[in-house]
Amino acid sequence: MWDPEELLKCTWHAFTALDIDHRGKVSKSQLKVLSLNLCNVMKIHFDPCVLEDHFKDDDSGPLSNQGYMRYLSNFILNKVTPQDDFSTLELFKFCWALSYRKNLSRHLRISHDDAFKVWCIFNFLSENKYPLSIVTQEVEYLLKLLTNAMGDIWSEGKYHVEMSLTKSKSLTAWELIELVGLQLFQNKSSPALTAAINEVFEELILGILKQGYMGKKCHAGKNWTEHWFVLKPKYLEYYTSEDLMEIKGKVALGGNCTVESLPDKDRICALLIKSSDTSFEMSASDKTKKKKWLQAIQKCIQIQELGLLPPQRQARENRRQQREMQKVTEDKVTELMRQLQANNESKQRELEALKKVHLEMEEQVAQKSSELQYCLHRVKDLEQMLEDERQARGGGQDKRKEHIRLLEDRVLKRAELKQMLLQQQRALSQSQAHRQLLETQQRDKERQLQEAMQQLEKLKGQNHGADQQNQDVSQRLKSAVNKNLKNKVAIHDGLMRLLQPGQKGPLMITNWGPAAFTEGELELRKKFWQKSRSWSATAE
Fold first, then answer.
1. Could you tell me whether strands 279-284 and 210-217 are parallel, antiparallel, or unpaired per DSSP bridges?
2. 457 lies in a domain?
3. Dihedral angle over CA of 457, 461, 467, 473, nearest 10
4. pLDDT 10s digits, 93-139
5. Are residues 380 and 247 in the same domain?
6. Please, are residues 46 and 27 in contact by the beta-carbon 8 Å criterion?
7. In CATH, what number is assigned to the domain containing residue 270?
8. Among the three residues 204, 222, 251, which one is the final residue of a domain in this structure?
9. Which of 48, 154, 234, 350 is the most exposed place for a label (fewest CB within 10 A)?
């Protein structure tokens, strides 16, 4: 079964070969000749008048690649049916003959036929996007098949140096041919490389799942004739020899076809294949080969019954789907990291704003505390003055009234000061609650960031070398946030304290006023200032 996409791909090479000026357009006369040859190769009946009318000269000028591919798909390929007996290899060879002379100029270690097979493999593995290219993952898949076919063990990253010479994530068909036929496998002999290319070509392009010599029992008599059997997803073919030049017959594996194992006797390991139109026995050389052939044929019959794609095409589609899913996952993780980073920066700005507000409130509290201390000292002075005046006057009525007035003023002043103190304490409590809420949110965001980093680590394990830079940035951001948060908590814990009655002993006088600190608090402040200086020196 031919694949329309692969037919379009090889025709695209023929179109670009005719585009001498690299403008993406070809004259209609050349496209008419190309279409005529394509119809002849694919054995399509066409009307010459219709062909002439479609490619007649008018003012529209030459056709572009998109315009001709649309015509090719609608008027030529749509006329091809699965029952049409035409060789896709003949179409591939025709398009190869038009394009290879223009694009291959360097001398290769591989033959012209091997270069053609690599070109066909490129069309099979390339993406369905134009201009055609093959991604790095598919190149590595091809190199793995070639390496295994030459008897070596594939190791991931074995040809990383050679692949890095391309400086891109994809290759054209001619870059792939030069990579395989000139740059890589220089330590391998030409016959070994040719055999490996032929083996991969037969598996991917010809769809050969298994091949080898087996005996076939003649319809009349008990004689056995040795043939070269070739197993494909739809047919079991047998030839005179392994050169595949003379086919002796084939069996369709769809429909009512069955295969069963016959009892072994006289060193004959026989299998029986039955179909709607024929049946015959064939014999493997030993029981192991018989079992492998039996399993392979049963698998092909099951593929036809379930309507599945051939194994090599199904594997290609699975790899494409995996790349698409991986790209979607990478995009989601990148978007999640971006959102988390934006949220983290927003919370950081909020913390910075809260820090400024907290510092302003601390300054206000210090100012109000100084005013309170001043008022308390003033009240004591007034009380002392009142007592001195009372003693001087000897306790007269005026003295008592003045004393009462001063006492009432003192009570009112104390009530106002207590009210101010309560308001300041409530403001400090609200600030601490808001700070705790922001710290909780910050921890939640850090936990989410860690989960995202773990997901990214899993993705990096699958993709072999994914986003290490994002992980380093996230780790440094997390360390900076924790460090700043610790500094803030240390600063806040060092600067805030509850207002308590002062000591009755001798008072210490600092630039904050008398009795602003105890000796223990002063020692703590000295240690904090020394650490702050060491941090600043380290940061510079």
1. antiparallel
2. yes
3. 30
4. 888 888 888 887 667 778 888 888 888 888 888 888 878 888 888 88
5. no
6. no
7. 2.30.29.30
8. 204
9. 48
Q: Give me the number of domains the chain comprises.
A: 4
- Per DSSP, the three-state class of 530 is helix
Residues 6+ apart with CB under 8 A from 364: 424
Is 536 found in the same domain as 466?
A: no
Which tokens hold the place of 433?
């609650």
Q: How far apart are CA 364 and CA 343, in angstroms?
A: 31
pLDDT in tens, 482-499: 777 676 665 555 444 444
Query: Where does 61-208 show beta strands of DSSP type E?
Result: 63-64, 134-135, 170-171
Q: How far apart are CA 369 and CA 381, in angstroms?
A: 18
CB hemisphere CA count around 329 (13 angstroms): 17
Looking at the fold, whether 479 and 343 belong to one and the same domain comes out as: yes
Whole-model pTM over 0.70: no
What are phi and psi for residue 42, nearest 5 degrees?
A: -90, 5
Burial code of 285-321, b = ≥16 C-beta within 10 A, e = fewer?
A: eeeebbeebbeebeebbebeeeeeebebbeebeeebe
Among 268-277, 328-337, 425-434, 477-486, which range has the highest average pLDDT? 328-337
Query: What is the rounded CA–CA span in Å between residue 356 and residue 244?
Result: 85
Q: What are the angstrom distances between the C-alpha of 469 and each of 168, 266, 347, 460?
A: 20, 68, 23, 12
Q: What is the DSSP string of 305-320?
A: HHTPPPHHHHHHHHHH
- Are 176 and 122 contacting, i.e. CB atoms less than 8 angstroms apart? yes
Residue type, 154: W
* Residue at 394: amino acid letter: G
Asked whether residue 349 falls in the same domain as residue 481, the answer is: yes
- The dihedral over CA atoms of 261, 264, 270, 275, expressed in degrees to the nearest 10, equals -40
| Residue 38 and residue 128 in one domain | yes
Q: What's the CA gap between 35 and 27, in Å, rounded?
A: 12
Instruction: Please list, in sequence order, all residues whose beta carbon lies within 8 angstroms of the beta carbon of residue 123, skipping any fewer than 6 positions away.
Output: 6, 9, 10, 13, 92, 132, 173
- Same domain flag for 343 and 269: no
Is residue 342 situated within a structural domain?
yes
Q: Does the residue 319 lie in any domain?
A: no
Determine the pLDDT at residue 499.
Answer: 47
Same domain, 44 and 162: yes
What is the spatial distance between Cα 125 and Cα 6, in angstroms, rounded to a whole number? 10
Range of the domain at 78: 4-204
Which residue, of 181, 204, 227, is where some domain finishes?
Answer: 204
Shared-domain flag, residues 246 and 220? yes
Q: What H or E segment, with its residue span, contains residue 85? A: none
